[in-house]
C-alpha cells in the first residue's frame, strides 16, 4: 500500500497515517540502539524479524481476549494498527533478576523473583526514561487509579501468555516491557496493549544454556543480533524463508 503522511519516527519504528481514520501504519526499521541511543547500528533484517514476531505475539493476545492495537500485518516490514492515546509510561514486568534491577538491588542475574514485579518508567528519552512510582503517576496525572488497576491486569495477562509461549519452545521470559494506550468507544474508554512485543522489548534466555536471545546480544557484543532473533522466530515456527539477509551490520557514527 502507498505510504501516507509520516506521523512520528522513533528509534526502531516509523508511524504513518493509515488508510482509514483511526488507523496507523507501523514500519519496523533495522536500527538497533542501546544505552539511550549512545550505541547504534543498522542491522539488516532486524525490522523484518521484529515485525513478524510482534504480529505473532499481538495476534496471540488478541486471540485470548487481551486487547491490543494490532489489526493485521501488511507486508514484511509494516503492520496496520489501531490509533491510541499512549500513556507516557513503560510498563516493565520482571520474572527474574537482570539488567538494571540486578544493579539497583545487588541481585544475582538470573535469580528467580518471588513473584512477578511490575515497574514503571516515565517515557522521556532526554531524561533516560526514569523509574517512577505510582505516587508520581497519580500526582502528575499520567494515569488514574482505575487506569493503574487495568494496566496491572493487562501486564500480568501478557506475562502469563508470553511465559507459556516461551516456555513451550525452551525459552525463559526473564522480563519485558509494554506500552499501553487509551482508545475511546463512544463515551467509554478502555486500555489496550500498544507499540510492539519483540526481542527488542523482552529478555529471552535459552532454558538450558542461558544463551541470550534478545537485545542484550547487541548491548553486550555477544554475537549476531539477527542470529539471536532468527532463533526465536525459528523456534516459534514463524521465520520467513529468505526474508532475513545475513549481511554485516553497518556502523552509524
UniProtKB/TrEMBL annotation:
Gene Ontology molecular function: ATP binding; phosphoribosylaminoimidazolesuccinocarboxamide synthase activity
Main enzyme class: ligase
Documented EC number(s): 6.3.2.6
Pathway as given in its UniProt record: Purine metabolism; IMP biosynthesis via de novo pathway; 5-amino-1-(5-phospho-D-ribosyl)imidazole-4-carboxamide from 5-amino-1-(5-phospho-D-ribosyl)imidazole-4-carboxylate: step 1/2
SUPFAM superfamilies: SAICAR synthase-like (SSF56104)
Cellular component, GO, one term: cytosol
GO biological process: 'de novo' IMP biosynthetic process; cobalamin biosynthetic process
Gene3D superfamilies: ATP-grasp fold, B domain (3.30.470.20), Phosphorylase Kinase, domain 1 (3.30.200.20)
InterPro entries reported for this sequence: SAICAR_synt/ADE2_N, SAICAR_synt_PurC, SAICAR_synth, SAICAR_synthetase, SAICAR_synthetase_CS
Annotated ranges, domain SAICAR synthetase/ADE2 N-terminal: 6-235
Database matches in Pfam families: SAICAR_synt (PF01259)
Reaction catalyzed: 5-amino-1-(5-phospho-D-ribosyl)imidazole-4-carboxylate + L-aspartate + ATP = (2S)-2-[5-amino-1-(5-phospho-beta-D-ribosyl)imidazole-4-carboxamido]succinate + ADP + phosphate + 2 H(+)
UniProt KW Ligase keyword: yes
Domain of life from the UniProt record: Bacteria
Keyword entries, A-Z: ATP-binding, Ligase, Nucleotide-binding, Purine biosynthesis
Homology family: Belongs to the SAICAR synthetase family.
PANTHER family: MULTIFUNCTIONAL PROTEIN ADE2, SI:DKEY-6E2.2
Protein name as annotated: Phosphoribosylaminoimidazole-succinocarboxamide synthase
Gene designation: purC
Amino acid at each position: 500500500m502507498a505510504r501516507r503522511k509520516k506521523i512520528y519516527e522513533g528509534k526502531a519504528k516509523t508511524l504513518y497515517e493509515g488508510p482509514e481514520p483511526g488507523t496507523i501504519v507501523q514500519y519496523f526499521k533495522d536500527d538497533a540502539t542501546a544505552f539511550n541511543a549512545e550505541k547504534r547500528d543498522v542491522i539488516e533484517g532486524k525490522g523484518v524479524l521484529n515485525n513478524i514476531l510482534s504480529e505473532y505475539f499481538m495476534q496471540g493476545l488478541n486471540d485470548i481476549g487481551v486487547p491490543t492495537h494490532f489489526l493485521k500485518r501488511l507486508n514484511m516490514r509494516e503492520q496496520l494498527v489501531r490509533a491510541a492515546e499512549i500513556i507516557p509510561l513503560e510498563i516493565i514486568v520482571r520474572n527474574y533478576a537482570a539488567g538494571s534491577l540486578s544493579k539497583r538491588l545487588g541481585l544475582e542475574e538470573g535469580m528467580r523473583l518471588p513473584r512477578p514485579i511490575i515497574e514503571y518508567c516515565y517515557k522521556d528519552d532526554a531524561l533516560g526514561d526514569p523509574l517512577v512510582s505510582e505516587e508520581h503517576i497519580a500526582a502528575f496525572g499520567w494515569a488514574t487509579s482505575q487506569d493503574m488497576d487495568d494496566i496491572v491486569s493487562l501486564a500480568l495477562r501478557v506475562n502469563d501468555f508470553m511465559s507459556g509461549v516461551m516456555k513451550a519452545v525452551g525459552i525463559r521470559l526473564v522480563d519485558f516491557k509494554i506500552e499501553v494506550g487509551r482508545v475511546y468507544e463512544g463515551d467509554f474508554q478502555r486500555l489496550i496493549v500498544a507499540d510492539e512485543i519483540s526481542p527488542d522489548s523482552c529478555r529471552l534466555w535459552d532454558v538450558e544454556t542461558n544463551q541470550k536471545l534478545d537485545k542484550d546480544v547487541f548491548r553486550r557484543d555477544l554475537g549476531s543480533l539477527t542470529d539471536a532473533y532468527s532463533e526465536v522466530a525459528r523456534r516459534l515456527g514463524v521465520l520467513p524463508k529468505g526474508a532475513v539477509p545475513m549481511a554485516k551490520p553497518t556502523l552509524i557514527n
